[in-house]
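Researcher: Before we compare anything, I want clean individual predictions. No alignment, no superposition, just each chain on its own. First chain goes here; please echo the sequence and then give the structure tokens.
Model: Echoing the first chain and its structure:
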Amino acid sequence: MQTDFLVIGSGIAGLTYALKVANQFPDKKVTVITKTNTAEETNTKYAQGGVAGVWNEAKDSFEKHIEDTLIAGDGLCNKNVVEIVVKEGPDRIKEIIEYGTRFDKDEKGAYALGKEGGHSEFRILHHKDVTGNEIERALLQTVAKTKNISIIHHCFVLDIITQHHLGFLVTKSTLNITCYGVYVLNLNTNEVEKITSNITLLATGGCGQTYRATTNPKIATGDGIAMVYRAKGRIENMEFIQFHPTALYEPGVSPSFLITEAVRGDGGILRNKHGEAFMEKYDSRKDLAPRDIVARAIDSEMKRTGTEYVYLDCRHFEKEKFIHHFPNIYEKCLSIGIDVIQHLIPVAPAAHYSCGGIKTDENACTSIQNLYACGECASTGLHGANRLASNSLLEAMVFAHRAFLHVSNHYQTLQKNIDNITIPDWNTKGTTEPKEMILITQSFKELQQIMSDYVGIVRTNVRLARAMKRLDLLFEETEQLYRSTKVSPQLCELRNLITTGYLIVKAAEFRKESRGLHFNTDYPNKSSLLQNIVL
């Protein structure tokens, strides 16, 4: 099929962009692809905390939000991008409110603003502890009313179509690599199809499933990042994987249930197995220090005391207030026998967010022509070495809007690129049905174990080298399987995760310092030579 605008992913980034281009070009076709059977199954849905934005200008300011973001990013943020996101953010928040998003208000009818780690002021808009789910609901309801947007479910994107598929040699140094659309595996028919488009936007989310313990849903397999890397596009800063400090500790449960940072913002206290409040030993901001500091502090306490978790103490909260603000967390804890007003909550860090990804400019343009990227799969320069809490949903909206503006201004040029180009069908010659799924499932477990054991919160040169050797073997085995069998979502997700794992390790090996989310005990100090690692 052919479409005018192709969107891969149905989270906040993809749907915001889709709505804007659909309204700007009502006679054009906008197609959104999702690999699940429901459009709302996205990373956005699982975002609990909220959206950061300067809302109360009497107490807050753009300058404060910018400074907080730069401090959290530990010297690697693009300051111009930070200013863009912070200053344009409030207008984007007003738009999702117009779409129907219901942020919590206080008894006077004003928005109830929260405060999270790294923030100097109360500026987080939220909907109880399910903010992402509320935003996703509002966006999908608006999309359903927009006639020229169609959502295709159960389609797994295999590859970005470029000159490579037309028979040309494409390398990292090739000029003008161009995206003509994508190959997809239709999971309803099990056939590989092609969708061509003049303009494609990747909003494929993160790569949390690279790790054994993650707050990300099963779909977060780094698909967009891996596809762009295979297409010889530029990937940046993959070593900066943010581990959320407080995921509910439940052995063997995946994904891990997130205990939002807003709980600590409201006064939750981290304690070790001896009941000691330990954060004051690590940072003057205590429990509200940036996430990289809190995660490393928890990791240190677990190793020091020989435990697999620490505790979050909420026993001093008013019960009604806690249930009102965090009903989802209260019910989840209660379901496993923990009354948060009487018992300590066992928590441990879990992979949560990729601060790096597909390198983009200020208009969400990637290094591949006609291909845009926004949301967690993109590296815009906002987060630097560590994301400030609740800046991700804001970034997704701002760059979806900027991608829309760039497309609108250049549409006449962009829309001519696939005229008279014949895209070949997907080549399945020489492949057979897979005989043993155990080859895929076991490799998946091995990958997660390698990354969790060797490339976690604290790293060393030896661990990184060992991880790379084992990933090389997994890569060779998986590529052989990929060449000889028919494609399946499981095989393709494994392949994408191995690529993502390789990029994380390779970038970590290049960074000869400790900065933000990347901490290497062989290089415990920061270097004066600041640089982004581009692969």
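Researcher: Okay. Second chain, same rules.
Model: Second chain and its structure:
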Amino acid sequence: MSTAVANGVPAAADDGLNRRMITVSIMLATIIQALDGTIANVALPHMQGSLSASQDQITWVLTSFIVAAAIATPLTGWLCDRFGQKNIFLTSVAGFTIASVLCGLSGTLSEIVIARLLQGVFGAALVPLSQATLLDINPREKHGSAMAVWGMGVMIGPILGPTLGGWLTDSYDWRWVFFINIPIGAMAFYGIWRYIRKTDAPRKMKFDAFGFATLSLSIGALQMLLDRGEQNDWFSATETWVEAIILALSFAYFIAHTATRPAGKSFFDYRLLKNANYVSGLLFIFIVGLVLFATRALTPSMLQSLMGYPAKIAGLVTAPSGIGTMIAMMMVGRLVGKVDLRLLLGIGFAITAFSLWQMSRYTLVLSQSDIVWPGVIQGLGLGLVFVPLSAATFATLSPEMRAEGTAIYSLIRNIGSSIGIALVQTLLVRNTQTVHASLTEHITTTNPSLLDNLATPQAAAALNNEITRQASMIAYVDDFWLMFILTLCVIPLLMLIRPPAKSAPVTVDHAAMD
């Protein structure tokens, strides 16, 4: 490997050690952001009592974080162009950590919602910047391994978040769900400050206020629509119509505005869309979010609502899926660049489809191994998809466009996840109602085998509860079948991806500071 040079200054002799320290530091930053997307979920009932909030109000603790992060994510590229990547990274880590302290100290609902908004705003850049930095500090032949490390950091949050959140809440207090970020954030801040070389801001672009405003409005409206749609019975509510109209109008204005401005002058650099591999990567990461992340949201709720699993146990039996993901990522990181990426992706999607087929055979009588093994297999499939997809997406993207490219990539993944979760939850509720109505058609006083079950109100209520459980289980199975079919339909689309050409190693721009 050639000695890296940045701003005319050679990298230090212990370049390998510094690269490892950079990796550790930025992955700590990634982990705290990924954790906070899910770690607070299991603590909501405790927060509700402590903050004297209603069931509807306490969900804003989650919604405020999601919406703020979604709106702020597209800002990452422009901020790095204006102020420099290292400065934005440090500001994001510091702001996120301080906002976590404010969350833990909150005494009212309004205080914690404002603090969570700040968390979302400052945390939005952490995942895309960690991905961009890992691509910058590694030569091209090691991008597969770098994306494997990044993928493990991104995935550890959704996997460990509920389990860690449940343990902290039960063993200490819900406030420690946020205080846990303080030592991790401090270590990440020091590592980024100490080991990443500061570089000049590359372009000094003028801020496109209209483009940002219209894009922010459309993203915010979409997230609100998806988050509250099921609760509002979708388009039966005025709120949903308002959100849909705002989404359509603001996004139409954004597209028209972006298309009529010169390249580099709009908030979104549409030159990204001229890169075929990048556009294909956006399509597939949207599908990954839609199918795979939505599926991960189904199993914990099924275990808790239908089978009476406590939150901690539900987290423990679903956590092994993360082991499968990490094993696959470690293996596939070494294969990227040696094996056709489309083959790796095809195998990953096929393994994922097999796990979904196994889940579609679930019944109300399940052992813990029946839950663990399909989860591990699904984790293997996800790992085989995530790493080569990331490597292929950015293989032909110029380094100066990585900050914006990774931000849009993360945004599309999150939007796909939000849409997928909203889809499966809506189908779950509606299919449960449909199946329940179908089953109750056979419950009549003329059916002699059911007369004893209708003899008293208590017996009738117990029978109705059992019918509801059966209907819910069928609805969960229907969701798994849908995800299975969608995953199979994705595989032929892999031909859209062009294998990146083998090229010389790239130079490393972020070596040690001294």
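Researcher: What stands out in the second chain?
Model: The longest strand covers residues 5-6. Additionally, The chain has three domains: 5-208+261-434+473-496, 209-260, 435-464.
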